[in-house]
Amino acid sequence: MSETVFPDVRGPSLDGTPGLRWGVIGTGQIAADFSDALHAHTAQRVTAVTSRSADRGAVFAREHGVERVFTDAQAMAADPHVDIVYVATPHRQHHAGALAAIEAGTPVLIEKPLGLTAAEGRSVAAAARRAGVFAAEGMWTRYQPGFHVLEELIWNGALGDVRLADAAVGWKVDPGGPGRMFDPAEGGGALLDMGVYALWFAQFAIGHPASLTTTGSTADGVDVESATILTGRSGAIATATTTLRATTDGLASITGSSGSVRFLDHFVFPSRFSLTVDGASTVWNDGRPLPGRAGLAYEAAAVASYVIDGRTESPLHSLDDSLALARTMDTIRTTLTEQDRPR
Asked: CATH 3.40.50.720 spans which residues of the chain?
């Protein structure tokens, strides 16, 4: 099988999309990685940052080439020199940051998850739709070149009818260590940070789930690990697994009636995959890959192109897609809590 079986699709050009002026809410690692990826690989520019601490904001601005510092997200979102807002705060602050941008009439990209709960997600989606303002969940993996190719392979029938998919995403976290992963008040747990990727992959492969079953465990009020079987409307089945107790390899797969795809690297990041049809395999490999979180550049360039085109939602990961994910996570967490409740 020659490599010509792979469709020539990549999504928006990294350097061909006109640059927007981005305002970032938050000064943590994801905000830093996002800013650096944009400046290194795209025409997009982070020109403003909001931090509750002016000193932290000033340090972030100096280290990442950002011109202006705010201590109020609403003021930054309303600033005429900010074209779009990226919400890069911890989970529990996503809802407020998103609404601040929407109320100012400024397009907004919200780092996943869209909110702590499906109710928060619905609130953001409803506000954006009422205002006619672009809003999207930052499911950055969806925008990487490999997923443009994989989507086309599925739609052109290269795999036949999709029947199975699986993905596992987990990183071992010390429950006694610093951070929010075991703090329910801060949106801790495996699902919102890691499991969301596995569940998104399942949804990408089989569509919005018609039903699901799940098992797993909780500790100190957060979900620690879970394994979920999802059934799509076509009857296709996907498994999504996540854990805070071990680190997974992230080698996801999709199997159809005529062929299969297996990722050769962690699928969350820019990665290769192998396509097998009629017993013959070939490997898709990005000719100019971006390493690790530098892949956030693909998402930023795509979102900028949507805003410039006047769209109010992402055609690759719509608000309805985000809400379906949020409902799935709500259901899983409720089920796990009930399973662990003393009887």
From this structure: 12-141
Q: Of 109, 139, 180, which Cα lies nearest the Cα of 326?
A: 139
pLDDT in tens, 51-91: 999 999 999 999 999 999 999 999 999 999 999 999 999 99
Sequence-ordered alpha helix ranges (H) in the chain: 29-41, 54-64, 73-78, 94-103, 118-131, 145-155, 190, 196-206, 296-308, 319-340
Cis peptide before 113 (omega within 30 of 0): yes
Domain with CATH 3.30.360.10 in the chain: 145-287+314-340
pLDDT of residue 1: 40
CATH superfamily of 145-287+314-340: Dihydrodipicolinate Reductase; domain 2 (3.30.360.10)
Contact 174, 300 (CB under 8 A): no
pTM given for the model: 0.96
Instruction: Give dist(CA 216, CA 284) in Å, integer.
Output: 34
